[in-house]
Specification:
- The structure is a single chain.
- With about 350 residues, the protein is α/β, with parallel strands linked by helices.
- The protein has three domains: about 50 residues, 434 Repressor (Amino-terminal Domain); about 130 residues, Response regulator (Rossmann fold), CATH 3.40.50; about 130 residues, Response regulator (Rossmann fold).
- The chain has 13 helices and ten strands.
- Helix 8 runs parallel beside helix 9.
């Protein structure tokens, strides 16, 4: 005798009609009760409704979200779109956390889409996402290398698009980096520092707005206090390797040997500058105080002795969802962009 192991059959989902049959009412009545649209203004009706809800629970009935979406012409789903190539796949995790939190409050779903850099804007690839994915709108996060060639393409799509961490006049939500630079200077001057520098890496072309605005905020705040704002290296359009990163930190300290405190573009700059300073006997933070922009607390996350200016990515993500919802409700795609302010530093 031969025994054949047959794959287990998945149980068929319970239908609205089955719940109605068990309750002895129509499918329409069950639908109204489970969707909270049934008038329960009399005790007998309220008792029947409670019975229907209990039967649905006992049977394990789950509403068909796809069918509901087709009926109301909306999917209550947003897609987060970013690049998926190693090395250029950066996006703010805390921003994605904020998007998810805001969508959860709206009882919406989130679809995450990674797209190969070489195929961003390819008519054979992107339309597949827009045509086959059941979403109401897009929240797009792309590095500057792709923005110029893709903005027009996404803007031309029928689905509304909100840009994350890109500085544009409409439909963009981004951190207010100039304010961040000003807050960092204010903190250092309160501590008595007067020879303040700004240190950043070399950047790919085009340079992201955050590097320009953080430096601009630093320069403006320094000049308002009648201090010298020259202690920074020129912004460069290059993509350095790790060795060049460290060399730039050494170049900064040799160019400005009198600096008593430094505002660093991000935690990677904090790391390279700390190593370079320790090599020449300038201990951090005893001799050289450092503040770094970061998604998370630099000391707690990386163990480095620097204050943290937390980039407000979480709120950026939340506001991107709110903007997308307003666009869908009003049909107005000319929503003004929003700059999310920074809060105080964390030790």
């Amino acid at each position: 005798m031969i025994y054949v192991n047959l794959p287990k059959q998945r149980p068929q989902p319970i239908t609205l009609e089955e719940v109605a049959t068990r309750a002895g009412v129509s499918a329409g009545t069950v639908s109204r009760v489970l969707n909270g649209k049934n008038k329960e203004n009399r005790p007998a009706i309220a008792k029947r409704s409670e019975k229907i809800r209990q039967i649905a629970l006992d049977l394990g009935y789950r509403p068909n979200a796809a069918a509901r979406s087709m009926l109301r012409g909306a999917f209550r789903t947003a897609a987060f779109v970013t690049c998926g190539d190693p090395g250029i796949d950066w996006y703010p995790i805390t921003g994605l956390n904020g998007i998810h939190a805001a969508l959860t409050e709206l009882d919406w779903r989130l679809i995450y889409n990674e797209m190969p850099a070489s195929q961003i804007g390819d008519p054979d690839i992107v339309p597949q996402l827009l045509r086959e994915t059941a979403v109401d709108g897009l929240i797009v996060n792309l590095l500057p290398y792709f923005v110029e060639e893709t903005v027009d393409y996404f803007e031309a799509q029928p689905l509304p698009c909100v840009w994350l961490n890109i500085k544009r006049e409409v439909r963009s939500v981004y951190p207010d980096e100039r304010t961040g630079g000003e807050i960092a200077v204010e903190s250092l001057t309160r501590s008595g520092h007067k020879r303040i520098g700004f240190f950043s890496r070399s950047f790919g072309n085009p340079i992201h707005y955050s590097s320009i605005d953080r430096l601009g905020g630093f320069q403006q705040a320094i000049k308002l206090r009648d201090l010298s704002s020259h202690r920074h290296l020129p912004l460069q359009s290059a993509r350095p390797d790790r060795g060049a990163f460290q060399q730039r930190a050494e170049q900064f300290l040799s160019s400005f040997p009198d600096v008593d405190s430094v505002i660093c573009y991000e935690s990677a700059e904090v790391s390279s500058l700390t190593v370079a300073a320790e090599r020449i006997g300038r201990r951090v933070p005893d001799v050289l105080e450092i503040i770094g922009f970061s998604e998370r607390n630099i000391h707690d996350t990386f163990g480095m002795n620097a204050k943290s200016l937390i980039i407000p990515f979480h709120e950026t993500g939340r506001q991107a969802v709110n903007m997308l919802q307003r666009i869908l409700e009003t049909g107005n795609r000319d929503a003004s962009s929003i700059a999310i302010p920074y809060s105080l530093l964390e030790d």
